[in-house]
Amino acid sequence: METKKKLIQYYSQYSNDYFYEYRRKIQSIEIENEYLEFSPEIHIGKDTLTSISLANKIKKSTLICYFPMSSCPPCINLLLEKIKNAFPDYAQRDDIIFFSNDVEYKLRNNFYGKQIFQYADKKQVIPAEKYSTPYLFILDKEMKTKLFFFMDKQTPDYTDDYLNIVKQKIFNHETKL
């Protein structure tokens, strides 16, 4: 019985250490990607012949939802569920953009109700693109990234908190201007 208690204590401590170390790493990546200029030429949906500047689509602060196809389907589904809960009208909103450079061609016009934006030039990179976790950030009028957030299915409440902050502080503030 004593051995079992020690094992439980050991694994409990190990998992807490791992969680905090992981969160610190994620936070450092989020901070590295703050205030970067992001204004690529893009394609929208299946139209790969027409390139436009993303700056032409951004009229105010916009929530960019980046979906790498290398992320696991449960992560993508969880993030989409969280977005739907926070913004039931997300599909009609022009201040919420879905971005992915590697989503399947057949899904580009309707990826969970939205068109996918992707780079016109594949040599361009989105901030933090090398990570396979879905993430969110705000793109402001000056085309600078703000409020980077990596979704983590282990802590879904963090995603709820992030989306509520965006909804209250970014979108509600702008509607009052």
Spatial arrangement of strands, main beta sheet:
2-1-5-4-3-6-7
Question: Which whole number gives the mean pLDDT?
Answer: 83
Binned, the helix content reads: 25-40%
CATH first level of the largest domain: which class? Alpha Beta
State the end-to-end distance. 64 Å
Question: What's the helix count?
Answer: 3
CA-atom Rg in angstroms: 18 Å
What is the CATH topology descriptor of the largest domain?
Answer: Glutaredoxin
User: What is the CATH architecture assignment of the largest domain?
Assistant: 3-Layer(aba) Sandwich
Write down the secondary-structure element order: HEEEHEEEEH
Give a structural overview:
This protein is an alpha/beta fold. The protein folds into two domains: 1-32; 35-176, 3-Layer(aba) Sandwich (Glutaredoxin), CATH 3.40.30. The chain is built from three helices and seven strands; from the N terminus they run αβββαββββα. The protein has helices at residues 2-32, 73-86, 156-176, and strands at 41-44, 47-53, 62-66, 96-99, 116-119, 135-139, 145-150. A seven-stranded mixed beta sheet has the order 2-1-5-4-3-6-7. The radius of gyration is 18 Å and the shape is globular.
Give short descriptive properties of this protein:
single chain, 177 residues, alpha/beta, Glutaredoxin, 2 domains, seven-stranded mixed beta sheet, 7 strands
